Here is the input.
Amino acid sequence: MGGDHGPPVVIAAVARAIAALPGSVSFLLHGDEAAIGAEMAKHGDIADRVQIRHSDKVVGMDEKPAQALRRSKGTSMWNAVEAVREGEAAAALSAGNTGALMAISKLILRMSADLERPALVTSIPTPRAVTTFLDVGANIDCDAARLVEFAIMGEAFHRAAHGVPKPTVGLLNVGSEDMKGHEEVREAHRILRQGGLDLDYRGFVEGDDITRGAVDVIVTDGFTGNIALKSMEGAARFMNGELRNALTSSLPATLGYFLARPALLKFRERMSPPPAAPLLGLNGIVLKCHGGASDRDFAQAIRVAADLARSDFSAEIERNMRRLPAALAVEAPAEGVAAQTVPGEGDAAQGAAE
Amino acid sequence: MGGDHGPPVVIAAVARAIAALPGSVSFLLHGDEAAIGAEMAKHGDIADRVQIRHSDKVVGMDEKPAQALRRSKGTSMWNAVEAVREGEAAAALSAGNTGALMAISKLILRMSADLERPALVTSIPTPRAVTTFLDVGANIDCDAARLVEFAIMGEAFHRAAHGVPKPTVGLLNVGSEDMKGHEEVREAHRILRQGGLDLDYRGFVEGDDITRGAVDVIVTDGFTGNIALKSMEGAARFMNGELRNALTSSLPATLGYFLARPALLKFRERMSPPPAAPLLGLNGIVLKCHGGASDRDFAQAIRVAADLARSDFSAEIERNMRRLPAALAVEAPAEGVAAQTVPGEGDAAQGAAE
Here is the structure.
């Protein structure tokens, strides 16, 4: 029932997914039975792969998470997540209110990691492939252990979603030297280096490495991640606007634009946001599809959900999470040793980040 | 002597600036007398406005700040900043090593604000004008008072550099509600709201507001600012690369590209980084010009330096800084009051940021 378009897009996406995916995927559709039924009638051949679960109530797109949570029981969103807990569904997918989906998922499924709330991961295009980037918005205050949890979850997600056997992992910072950044990030760096986790950790990366594809998975706290993501989205929007202005600024430019139009449309599609972001750290698979998703986007999100459900994703996370207490217990080198590696840095120890 | 090009660019820029600026601007050029003299011979009419101050030593572009600092006395960079302290120059400008310039400036001029090191400010293009954005790289751990200092300095800079009488100020966060973000940012928000500072503070802004131009000045800590800036630069570089690929992907697209080329070059120029960033919080005006600056960029940086030197910039900052202790002493509302404004938020109090 969620998203900007509601049932028409979701059901068209289900029809696409059924056509594209091997026979083993079937659907529980939670929401208004009449609205869903009317849309399903347009796709006659999907009925045997779909069950409708009626609910009278929906979570509004603009409700505050806490407000939505209080009256969420019995909504289509609640029921979809509950079906994951009950083992009726292998994954839940929603284009609805993100904050409400997080709060409801956390309440119903509980966290498997030691996070405040589920981590939100996104995929950023790069010249070679995509960067998995997290946390982009849920966990503001992150200590070193939380950052390491993000690394474990993001790495398992990247493997499941993109089929990369051993994804490389980087930690977002303002420079690549060991002494850069604040305490939490330096401590997480040390644990990832020395903690004996099963990760291909490559060290610190910087903001421009997100779109460069320097590593497969980039980890940061939810404050920095949200701001970096929105900054990039804003920069892309601004550049698109300026590009449009430039290409309509003169007759030759406009003519050029029409000639280049198919290529530019392909360019724009490549820049568009990913269709689905998983909520990581829950005891169950929940994905958020963006509100404006088309049926094609939503169908792609269904494919990601199916890939996650079929992968060894949750077990891999659990396996690495069990190593975390031992990794956290590895002692930091004594002050004297650390001081020896950067003799006399003193005042300028952190250096200037440029 | 600094930057990618050294004296040829700097002296060509001085010639440009002398031609463009009213008669009152003159120059001390610090560096190798022979190299400077040879370049000056190409611009015969500038000799009466320029004094050469010879120095044998230079700071290397790749030296670590601490290392550079130890052997910096008598370098051209050291002498240029010292001339500001001695009152011989109204502002110092360098295209050299940023970290070394910060460390040397801090040592010679001392901080006027209570910062670890000078704040670095940048200008981001927006559809309407530019956003002044700071701190982009020097101060990693910022408490609420530091963020308020950035607001005071950034606002005065924006007025001096862009002639806006009363710039609007925003604080970078993951959402616009009062309870969003971490403690430091919420506390700074409260001080900026209630502290009686002479600022047109508009509240929280988000990452995409940087390029939207929602406010004139956007303030954040050096960790987040550096990562947001580099993320945007990376996104812009990636988009330019993809655009180039798109426009050479077919014959019509390439033909279109040639027709649109002048407009696209103007577009690229509009996206290029600003020529100069002031180091804020020092007892004196120091500007960093980017290393790859052309003589035109460097001449524009000279204009900004002259504008700052002529403005009431330093006095305005000092006036507002004197109000800071009183602003910091304004009591936070009692917990009960705060709780009343967000009844029952509980677990989801910070909400999810999307």
